[in-house]
Amino acid sequence: GKNGIFIALVAVVLLFSITTNGILLRPQNISNLIVQNGYILVLAIGMVLIIVAGHIDLSVGSVAAFIGAVSGVFAVHWGLPWWLAIILSLLVGAVVGAWQGFWVAFVGIPAFIVTLAGMLIFRGLALVVLGNANIGSFPAEYRAIGNGFINFPIDIPGGFKAHIDPVTLIVGLIAVGGIIVQQVRTRRGRVSYAQEVEPLGWFIAKMVLVVVGVGAFAYALSVYKGIPVTLIILAVLVLIYGTIQNRSVFGRHIYAIGGNRHAAELSGIKTRQVDFWLFVNMGVLAALAGMIFTARLNLAGPKAGDGFELEAISAAFIGGAAVQGGVGTIGGAIIGGLIIGVLNNGMSIMGIGIEWQQAVKGFVLLLAVAFDVFNKRRSGGR
């Protein structure tokens, strides 16, 4: 499944690099892909955990809009320091998540209903906070989380007009090394436990593609503006949540609950507490996504967050999460989000209307879920 998603991303990139005459792979456009889709990828990280546990969250777009508006009040209207405004906004997001987690975990109302109500409640509260007006402009440090870059450019020897950022290249090399080491260790671990692994030839080919892809990505960023702050935030989140998902008791409990809730309860897992903290976490990530979006636009407006929940859910399912729960990874959700981002970007460059873009994304989501259902039926599952 992971290999299929990886191949799908490569295929989509190749397709649109050809149909856009190479515009898709220009350094500026590659950087814009990360900046424009960063908030969706942040939401996808939290959403895949929710889906793995067998739930869904339809409110994340409204929560993102609400927290964006709240952060505007903190940073602009009240004049609080930018860092304090961010911390307080994250805390408000945690309170929102706790509110929804309480109804799901301790009252027993299905997450679909709770978050559908939350979608309406927090959209309404966002409008109340904004007063049907926009809030801006934000401090430069706040805007940096959505539009900032880290770079130390130097001139390229040999008379080239472009400049290059060596820090970005070094970070790219570290990332390549880390990915190779992690993949090799994972493969050796599976072999030592007599688990099924992919053929060695495919493993090597995949590593070559990863090295080339990450290297080209790092070079493109280095000759544009350097590393986007949004990318740094995403990288930190992927490392943290990847560790939680794969190496923590809490992460194992999430998979156990999604696989069989009743069996998890019988084994002593406190399923209600796990559900509660999953929604608290989703509230915090929705708050972060809302601030990244607000910082990128330098504006908190009533239309913020529209459709975010659909993009995040689509990213999780396209990335391999199972409808029934129990299956899904952070890496898969990120790849799924990147596929959606490339689709959006590539079709926009080609001049395809928004109506057809929506139709194509819906069709891709349907195929991803159908593929998951087909695999389960073929393996004897239901």
How would you characterize the overall build of this protein?
With 382 residues, this protein is mostly helical. It has 15 helices and four strands. The strands form two sheets. It has a two-stranded antiparallel sheet with strand order 1-4. Strands 2-3 form a two-stranded antiparallel ribbon. β2 (154-155) and β3 form a beta hairpin. It starts with a helix and ends with a helix. The model has no long low-confidence stretch (mean pLDDT 90).
Secondary structure tally, helices: 15
Task: Please tell me what the overall shape is.
Answer: globular
Please provide the ordered H/E string of secondary-structure elements.
HHHHHHEEEHHEHHHHHHH
Instruction: Assign a percent range to the helix content.
Output: over 70%
> What's the end-to-end separation, in Å?
18 Å
